[in-house]
Amino acid sequence: MDAGDHTAREYFHHSSAKRVNTDLVLLEALRTQYPHLDVIVAPLARCNLLMYAAAGFATAEPIEASHGHHAYDPPVKWVAYVPPQRRLDSQPGAFSERVLFGKYMYKWKDVEFLMYFVNGRDGTAAYPDVTQHYILTTEPQKAYQLIKEASLWTEELHDEVWVFDGGFWDKSRELYESVQKSHWSNVILDEDMKKALIADVEYFFDSRDTYTDLKVPWKRGIIYYGPPGNGKTISIKAMMNMLYKRGKEDNKQSVPTLYVRSLSSWGGPERALSDIFKKARAEAPCYLVFEDLDSIVNDNVRSYFLNEVDGLRANDGILMVGSTNHLDRLDPGIAKRPSRFDRKYYFPDPDWEQRRQYAVFWQGKLKGNKAIEFPDELCPKIANRTDGFSFAYMQEAFVAALLVIAGRRNDGDGEGGDKAQMEDGGDDDLEKLVLWRELKKQIDLLREELGKRRSNDGNIIGFNL
Q1: Of 139, 242, 260, which Cα lies nearest the Cα of 199?
Q2: Which listed site, 101, 140, 305, 369, has its alpha carbon 20 to 30 Å from 441?
Q3: How many H-runs (helices) and E-runs (strands) does the chain carry?
Q4: CA–CA separation, 383 and 441 (whole Å)
Q5: Which InterPro entries is this protein grouped with (predicted)?
Q6: DSSP character string of 324-348
Q7: Can you give the pLDDT at residue 70?
Q8: Vertex 53 angle, CA 68 and 63, to 5°
Q9: CA–CA separation, 181 vs 241, rounded Å?
């Protein structure tokens, strides 16, 4: 009588009792069941062979019982329904499977392997979750080559950004998608400053040989500072987007971004900084981002940070960028010493021309809205009235005004759009525009708030841009 898969039976027996070392149990079972095959064990943590196959580089066909069903037949898996991440998402959720024990015929480059995929631990973090691939083959050297290529693929970014948070590095598709919407053409800055920002970063990554010839370390630090809401974050994202395309659209070496959200870690901030710079050195050349640098690198972690920046380990190929709304809160040893952060770029409140450009930006966004009239003559008027505003305050004025207009249109009170046509572009005609009338109200309200915040704090507290 057929008793099912021998190795699966041993896995079931082992899993139903105390477990010490799943590898030893399964290796014994596999060598007994397949005495003519070599067994190679590849941990999932660095080599995800099923994902590698799903990406199209190999095939992995599940092997299930061809006749009859036995208690010990593979696979063993969990099935769960994962709802949409946000209630606002229009897409339905999806079913997700987690294989705990599976048997596959794995084909790669015309070579076939028999592979078991096994979760060897139960419990939570205190009892580690170890999942292994058990590859059976008569050609072990080709299995080693498969493991090498799949491991390299597993470590690479695939439309993702490395993010450090909670003490661990993880790949973020969400941040990547946000970055793809950020382009230098949408960043309103002084043109000379924008060119300098781009040239500074491009020159660094293109100049390894120059640094070597000059016998100076190939590393650099940049600080973006200034009142909130004036383009620091979008400039970082536009730079990330530009660097991501590097290597895809030309022959230059690609530059990944490593984004640090916090130093919160199970091992404390000193362990976090060690892990951050260890990863940066491994990924170099790379763009290492510390947003809100003054809140991340405080007095408690200053010495650990400086040790990583100035210590004995080489930081070749690492370009650090930190942003802060409060340069004065940074330790002078970080903010004022060139060998740590070599250049500082100030992001001031926008001047008249930049405010006019921002109004033009909104004019383009509203171009398809037939209910809102937004003539060219309105852009300089908005720039005149928003003197001293950050881009974030200007954005809030537009958003608040448009919400009021939309609310009135939904209520049917006749004030929800512009029906009057411009005649000669004079001020009297502009006053007929619902958008301009509501914008002026919102700008006046924000200016009152701005005055209060300046008088209370001595600084502008803006909205996030």
Answers
A1: 242
A2: 369
A3: 17, 13
A4: 15
A5: AAA_ATPase_domain, ATPase_AAA_core, P-loop_NTPase
A6: ES-GGGS-HHHHS-TTTS-EEEE-P
A7: 64
A8: 10
A9: 8
Residue type, 244: Y
DSSP per-residue string spanning 348-366: PPP-HHHHHHHHHHHHHHT
How many other C-beta atoms are found inside a 10 Å radius of the C-beta of residue 6?
Answer: 14
CA 182 to chain CA centroid, nearest Å: 13
Please, how many CA atoms are within 13 Å of residue 89, restricted to the half-sphere of its CB? 9
The answer for residues whose C-beta is within 8 angstroms of residue 276's C-beta and 6 or more apart is: 164, 258, 260, 263, 288, 308
* Low pLDDT (below 70) residues in the chain: 1-3, 17-20, 65-72, 87-89, 121-129, 410-428, 452-465
Burial class (CB in 10 A: 0-12, 13-18, 19+), 30: buried
In this structure, are residues 4 and 71 in contact, taking their beta carbons and an 8 Å threshold?
yes
SS (H, E, C) 10-51: HHHHHHCCCCCCHHHHHHHHHHHHCCCCEEEEEEHHHCCHHH
Question: Which tokens sit at 192?
Answer: 């000379």
Chain centroid to CA 57: 25
User: Taken in order 47, 53, 58, 63, is the CA torsion positive or negative?
Assistant: positive
Count CB-CB contacts under 10 A for residue 239: 27
- pTM check: above 0.85: no
Half-sphere exposure of 82 (CA within 13 A, CB side): 8
Alpha carbons 170 and 191: distance in angstroms, whole number: 35
